[in-house]
Amino acid sequence: MTASPARDTTPLGLRGRAEDLAAPLPPLLAEAEQLAQTVLMGEHGRRRAGAGSNFWQYRAAQPHDTARAIDWRRSGRADQAFVQEKEWQIAQSVALWVDDGASMGFASTPKLPPKGDRARLIALALAVVLNRGGERVGLTDARLPPRRGRGQLSRLAQILSHSAEADHGVPDPRSLAPRSRAVLVSDFLGPLEPIETMLTAGADRGVRGALLQVLDPAEEAFPYDGRTIFESMSGAIRHETLKAGDLRDRYLDRLAERRDRLGQLARATGWQFSIHHTGDSAAAALLWLYAALERR
């Protein structure tokens, strides 16, 4: 059985919701700004002390880097431009990964947001809070290195508006800066090997962070019985059964095993792990994420 998304989750539909930062704000960013107030009005949003101004590493320049940011002496020895990154910049950097797989489009009822919508909202609201606290936010891959500023939030909203055709997204650990922080938001219902690779690679570089598993309430309760057709959101997997209720215990056991595995991975690599249901308050998940980053 499949559930139709409550909102348009096609790439064009999501892009249209997060594209234009002129007034009025796009719904995704406007929602994120409003959600971020739950943290900003409290004791959070403070500026994190850096680790000094010493040079740390070079990275390839991106299209959005200004001419002032380019290290022209280093760039003159290569065929591309490079930017210096300092220790304080790394210490104040948070890289985000939000699963863009088709499975995140699931919503068991039109009254609930699709998992992907909720994941993007929480991640973008966290970016707003961190940005206002003086920290640099970007993505775990090379598309958007951590930076500050309103323009960075605009680019982040635009990139997060895209969805992939595959059932499950895969994080890319290659751009994780040493000693930075990272946040992974997903239903984590796909293969766990890429997640393990991400956390292990991060631990080797001194990266700490948080995993937030976003699930629809139906994925926790498995309220199905009788004849039911289960189909992945991409349509790649389909299973029909006449006795769905007989699958409940096995399904719940496997879900519990997966959750235990995620918790073990997080503990072994020094990360934090929590679960959020789309029927619950997004503010609670945002507060947990912010606190988790403070506990690094």
From TrEMBL:
InterPro entries: DUF58
Domain of life of the source: Bacteria
Domain (DUF58) ranges: 57-259
Protein name: Putative membrane protein
Protein species of origin: Limimaricola hongkongensis DSM 17492
